[in-house]
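Duplicate of #3305? Posting structure anyway:
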């Protein structure tokens, strides 16, 4: 009978395979090839990761850029609407100013005459000859038998809450020949003396409106002591 040692044959075959692997590994060319493959694989992995991360960063940057552009467009729309609204408000304010100027120009002469009429009603013995207005400059001419009435009339114009400003008065005494004859004595009545006056001032209704507004505001805030009007200077009177 033939005996075969299988254990020895297997051991020999394993030893031969190990020796072949060790031989290949110990070969410099094989080592270089293995290192090249490892380095190339690592390089591909690094490049792939860098490409993926760069692509993700680019996508995120593009998303943020799109959001910023959208916000900028919305802001531009809001700014445009704001400019249009400001333009409309400016046009409305211009129309209001034009209407105010038109009303002032239309109501100017009648308002001046009404203001003067009110003050003449408070002052006796004042007779007007003419009222002339050029722009905001006003010239009032008249006469009175006594100078006190003229001074009182000038004061009523001066203390008008800013309606009449820069007031000056010029007076001139004048004798009037009487045409009447006393029926009893047959003698003519003596000559009458009148004082002619010329008042020049500025008519500023806008200042009067401001003064009225400030007075209303001061009254609403509790009221403060009013200055004594008696301490104000009287209108200047120039006598000829």
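Output from current build:
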């Amino acid at each position: 009978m033939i005996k075969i040692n299988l254990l020895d044959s297997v051991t020999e075959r394993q030893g031969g395979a190990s020796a072949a692997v060790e031989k290949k590994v110990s070969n410099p060319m094989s080592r270089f090839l293995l290192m090249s493959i490892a380095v190339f694989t690592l390089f591909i992995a690094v490049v792939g990761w860098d490409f993926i991360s760069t692509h993700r960063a680019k996508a995120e940057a593009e998303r943020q850029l799109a959001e910023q552009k959208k916000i900028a467009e919305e802001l531009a729309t809001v700014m445009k609407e704001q400019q249009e609204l400001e333009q409309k408000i400016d046009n409305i304010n211009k129309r209001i100013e034009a209407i105010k100027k038109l009303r002032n120009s239309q109501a100017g002469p009648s308002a001046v005459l009404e203001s003067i009429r009110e003050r003449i009603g408070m002052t006796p013995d004042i007779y007007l000859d003419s009222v002339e207005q050029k722009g905001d400059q006003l010239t009032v001419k008249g006469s009175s038998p006594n100078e006190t009435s003229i001074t009182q009339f000038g004061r009523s114009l001066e203390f008008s809450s800013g309606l009449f400003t820069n007031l000056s008065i010029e007076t001139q005494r004048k004798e009037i020949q009487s045409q009447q004859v006393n029926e009893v004595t047959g003698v003519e009545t003596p000559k009458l003396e009148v004082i002619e006056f010329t008042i020049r001032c500025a008519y500023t209704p806008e200042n009067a409106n401001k003064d009225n507004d400030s007075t209303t505001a001061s009254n609403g805030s509790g009221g403060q002591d009013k200055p004594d009007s008696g301490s104000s200077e009287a209108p200047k009177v120039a006598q000829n």
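Confirmed duplicate; merging threads. The first helix runs from residue 6 to 26. Residues 107-180+187-215+234-239 form a domain with the Gyrase A; domain 2 fold (CATH 3.30.1360.100).
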